[in-house]
UniProtKB/TrEMBL annotation:
GO terms for molecular function: formate transmembrane transporter activity. This is Transporter (Formate/nitrite transporter family protein). InterPro entries: Aquaporin-like (IPR023271), For/NO2_transpt (IPR000292). Residues 1-11 have a biased composition (Basic and acidic residues). It is a multi-pass membrane protein. Residues 1-32 are annotated as: Disordered. The keyword Membrane applies. The lineage of its organism: Bacteria, Pseudomonadati, Pseudomonadota, Alphaproteobacteria, Sphingomonadales. Residues 19-29 have a biased composition (Acidic residues). Its main location: membrane. It is found in: Membrane. Keywords: Membrane, Transmembrane, Transmembrane helix. GO terms for cellular component: plasma membrane. The chain crosses the membrane at residues 66-92, 98-117, 149-170, 190-211, 223-243, 263-285.
């Protein structure tokens, strides 16, 4: 027999929550029923709820089969190549027009919009989604699952961007002017990234992780935040390892740089910078703000079980 059924005067958990609910309702008593309903419908999810939504998405990704992850990552790699492709098209159309670099940078967003809207697997997105489960429940199993996903997705992304590089190298669209502009733009971009690939990769990883986190609270407005963040990334000339790998393959295939220069002088340092910015900085900060609440919730649940 429980304490409550035995006549224990201590209120139940539901009863202890009642005053808080009544207090909340009292704050809205001056509003009509319709207005109160609007207030509740438009409440912004708490940081802890956002954390849980992103964490659950990460768990879903970690549990996907190998080939599902691989094909999704390959598709994302090829589609992300549309970012430099769109930039080349805009640059050709604008020529030397005022603010041409600003509007050309807008094309950078295209690949990201399509990849994120299509729920394809992009390495820099997974730096926060796949890492949160390991942060929340640290153990060898979760760490290995996270590393497995990163390896599969990054490898698949590189295959996809390599296919994009072949597409440009052999001008499979039969648009020589655009292909030449993609090659020119890619050579300029890689030359810039190779000056400090790791340092330039950190803000790119941080911004993409912040984008993933913010989209949870921006239902119906996702395209605007995707465009805003990636447009700023392009104008800042920071190094996104997957888009950069598409540009790297383009200039590597036409002989501008060697494989050693591309892989060790750009790709690996930039990818590490993305990891530091996404998982090492943003994911840790995002988790730290809700960790005390999670621990308090677990302690409360343990106390109720003991009773």
């Amino acid at each position: 027999m429980t304490r409550e059924t035995a006549g224990d005067p201590r209120p139940s958990h539901a009863q202890t929550d009642q005053p808080e609910t009544e207090s909340s309702d009292a704050e809205l008593e001056d509003l009509s029923r319709q207005d109160r309903s609007l207030v509740r419908r438009n409440e912004v999810p708490s940081a802890r709820l956002v954390h849980e939504i992103v964490r659950q998405r990460g768990i879903e990704e970690l549990e996907r089969p190998f080939w599902s992850l691989t094909w999704s990552a390959i598709g994302a790699g090829f589609v992300i190549g549309l970012s430099p492709y769109a930039m080349a098209i805009i640059a050709l159309k604008l020529g030397d027009a005022p603010l041409a670099p600003v509007w050309t940078s807008l094309g950078y967003a295209l690949g990201f919009v399509l990849v994120i809207a299509g729920r394809m697997q992009l390495f820099t997105e997974s730096t926060v989604t796949a890492f949160l489960p390991a942060l929340t429940t640290p153990c060898v199993s979760n760490t290995l699952r996270t590393l497995r996903l990163w390896a599969i997705v990054f490898g698949g992304n590189l295959i996809g961007t390599f296919l994009f590089g072949l597409f440009i190298q052999f001008d499979l669209a039969h648009q020589a002017e655009i292909a030449a502009e993609v090659q020119h733009h890619s050579a300029m971009a890689i030359g810039h990234y190779m000056k400090a690939p790791f340092a330039l990769g950190i803000p790119a990883g941080f911004m993409l992780a912040a984008l993933v986190w913010s989209m949870t609270n921006l239902k119906g407005q996702e395209i605007f935040i995707i465009v805003a963040v990636t447009w700023m990334m392009a104008m800042a000339n920071i190094a996104h390892s997957v888009v950069g790998s598409a540009e790297m393959w383009v200039v590597m295939l036409n002989g501008t740089i060697t494989p050693t220069e591309g892989i060790f002088g750009f790709l690996l340092p930039a990818a590490l910078g993305n990891l530091v910015g996404g998982a090492g900085l943003f994911a840790f900060l995002a988790h730290a703000q809700v960790k005390p609440e999670i621990e308090a919730s677990h302690d409360g649940a343990a106390d109720r079980e003991e009773r």
